[in-house]
Amino acid sequence: MATAFTGTGDPARSMALLWRTPASDAVRPGPKSALDVDRIVSAAVQLADAEGLAAVSMRRVAADLGTAAMTLYSHVPGKGELVDLMLDAVLAELYPDEEVVTSGTWRTRLKTVAQANWDFFLRHPWAAHLATGRPPLGPGLMRKYELELRAVDHLGLSELQMDLLVTLVNGFVRGTVSGVQEKADAERLTGLSEDQWWAATEPYLAQVFDAERFPTAARVGPIAGEELGAYDPHRSFEFGLDRLLDGIGVLILDASR
């Protein structure tokens, strides 16, 4: 899946739309439109969830809404601004119970944050493929940032360390969840399930795991394959998250000394 980018539209227009400032919702002469920004964004998100972000265009969203593309442009300037609005809108789904980020131990809280982000990317796979070097600084993103910072607050960490920890956990989740999409893409493109693919390669495994050429791989690979079976992205996520939290624990311990 190709990577798309946030922040490619007019930043002033995007910010006005993200925060729904009066200028972005000005009263226009003539009959009141049945469309508004929220309806357009909702339709675009539904389309991206079903068919991927590449399917989203102003023309396609307009068609799904039963209107002309030019009608959409009177509310949203273009796809760049629309993508910013889409991402911020779905980020607002996170943490419906805000107390989860301040309940329990720091480890429990960060596990909650990581799992919430994992589940979010499964609901909206297109969001994981957005490059956010210029993130949409809307209310959805800022609420997410605020709540995730609370999960690491009052641990003796500096403000910079708090920000870096939140970034670290989010980056880990985003990297591991991509394995889910990659596995689905492989099955879709080849027409073979994971088990079918391994069955097709079985006659060659003696050559692949040649103990003379690849002694370490020949020792580890068959055992791991028997234990783990087909590649499981969520198992990799859980294992990696525990190791990541182990390291964070060392940082927090050092900060408390």
Oligomer: single chain
Neighbour order of strands in the largest sheet: 1-2
Total helices: the number is: 13
Order of helices and strands: EHHHHHHHEHHHHHH
Mean pLDDT: 90
Beta-strand percentage? Answer: under 5%
Query: How many separate domains make up the residues?
Result: 2
What is the 3D form?
Answer: flat
Largest sheet, described in full? 2 strands, parallel
Q: What is the number of beta strands? A: 2
**CATH architecture field of the largest domain:** Orthogonal Bundle
Task: Give an account of the 3D structure.
The protein is 64% helix and 2% strand. It has 257 residues and is mainly alpha-helical. It folds into 2 domains: 4-91, Homeodomain-like (Arc Repressor Mutant, subunit A, Orthogonal Bundle), CATH 1.10.10.60; 98-256, Tetracycline Repressor, domain 2 (Orthogonal Bundle), CATH 1.10.357.10. Strands 1-2 form a two-stranded parallel sheet. Helix 6 packs parallel to helix 9 (159-190) and helix 9 packs antiparallel against helix 13. The longest helix has 32 residues, at 159-190. The radius of gyration is 23 Å and the shape is flat.
Strand and helix map with partners:
Layout: E1 4-5, H1 11-18, H2 37-51, H3 58-65, H4 69-73, H5 79-91, H6 106-123, H7 125-128, E2 130-131, H8 139-150, H9 159-190, H10 194-201, H11 205-208, H12 215-228, H13 233-256
Parallel strand pairs: 1-2
Helix pairs in contact: 1-5, 2-3, 2-5, 5-8, 6-9, 9-13
Protein name: TetR/AcrR family transcriptional regulator
DNA-binding region: 57-76
Organism: Blastococcus deserti
